[in-house]
Every structure is written in structure tokens, then in C-alpha cells.
Amino acid sequence: MATPAIPYKSRPALRISFSVTSHLVQCASRDFQQTKNKMADFYYLPGSSPCRSVIMTAKAVGVELNKKLLNLQAGEHLKPEFLKINPQHTIPTLVDNGFALWESRAIQVYLVEKYGKTDSLYPKCPKKRAVINQRLYFDMGTLYQSFANYYYPQVFAKAPADPEAFKKIEAAFEFLNTFLEGQEYAAGDSLTVADIALVASVSTFEVAGFEISKYANVNKWYENAKKVTPGWEENWAGCLEFKKYFE
């Protein structure tokens, strides 16, 4: 059956409807593009391991960061305008469309949950997520903390090396070596935010001169992580900048 002809008087209204629809589609497309292109402000230093873990996570989920260098030595983190954003005046700090967040591992999880196309970097499975969280807390409270306790007094206060603090580093790497026994990744069978946080820390140990090769499982994991972690090149560039403190 043929489609009935549209009465002449109805045609202008139809043209107006098409015009309005086309306009709405164009507006929606423009708004989507603006949202897509909008970058989150990221206050950071390239040499900072926690900052680098966020940069790599952002790369992994396809988020472009509007990077804002913060000169800590000049006290820029203590200025009133930054204190309004982050009362703890720490880096990294993310401001995403007015939402401010600090602590690198919290930022990593936020970026994945908000922008990740899949949940592979931070799975929804409670058990898988629990292991990832354990590794993140291990990195924060044991591995990276051991770096800070041993190296920072030497770098920033010109203090002598503390042998007891160095033993804490060795213990932390022994733990990590155990976690990685028979494992290609730090928490599960694929790359997660745990690997990203840990590779930021371990690469910092490397430029500080720590012998990672002594720990076979860590060394094997680390070599693979260099190849599969998005944003590794920028992480390594930041490491080399931090290495200047040890030269």
C-alpha cells in the first residue's frame, strides 16, 4: 500500500519539527564534545611518585589532565587559593568539574570508577577489589612509606643513612616478592590500579639506586609492568627528574 501524501498545509509544521530536532541534536553533540574535551585540573610535581601514579591511571582510562605545576619550595601549596581546594595542602590534587580530591590512590579509584570504559582496572567483584585495596594500602603504608623514611631525610635534610630504615625497605620488597610468587600482576590476572601505584613506587626505588634485581618476582613483574602500563614513558621521565636529587 502506498504511503498517503502529506497534506500541503502540514508540510511547514513538519519542516519546523525537522529543524527543531536537528538543532537539538547539534546542541547535544556540542555539549557532549565540550564535556568530552573538558580537562580536570591536576596539581602535581612530575618527580612525585603518587602524582605519577595518577597520571598513568588517567592515561589508562583516557582522561586528559590539565596539569598545574605546584612549586612547593616557593610555598605555592600554602597559598589561600590552594588551601581552599585542599586544606591539607598536599599533592597530587585533582579538581574535576568543581569536585576536589587528594590522596593519589583515592584519585586513581575515582578516575577508574567515573571514566573507565570497563571495570578491569578496579573490578566490582568484592574479593578481587579487596585484594587490590590490600595492595594499594601496602604500597601506601609499607612500600612507599619505607622509601620516604629512608631516602627523604637524606635528600631533603642531608641526614646520614639510617641502616634500620633500610631494613624496612628490604622487608617491604620481601613482602612484595612473596605477593608476586607465580603472578604476572600484583592483584589478579590483569593490570589494575594496584600495579599502577606499585610501578610508580618501584620505579622511584630504581632511580634511587636500590637493587630491585635481588628480588626475582618483583624484577620479573616490574619488567612486564614497564611494557603494559599506559603512560609509562611519562612516569619514567618524572623518575629521571627525581633522580637529580641522588646525583
UniProtKB/TrEMBL annotation:
Residues 38-119 form the GST N-terminal domain. The gene is GstD1. Transmembrane segments: none annotated. It comes from the Eukaryota. This is Glutathione S-transferase 1-1. Residues 125-246 form the GST C-terminal domain. InterPro entries: Glutathione-S-Trfase_C-like, Glutathione-S-Trfase_C_sf, Glutathione_S-Trfase, Glutathione_S-Trfase_N, GST_C, Thioredoxin-like_sf. Homodimer. It holds the Pfam family GST_N. GO terms for molecular function: glutathione transferase activity. The lineage of its organism: Eukaryota, Metazoa, Ecdysozoa, Arthropoda, Hexapoda. One of its GO terms (biological process) is glutathione metabolic process. It comes from Drosophila kikkawai (Fruit fly). Belongs to the GST superfamily.
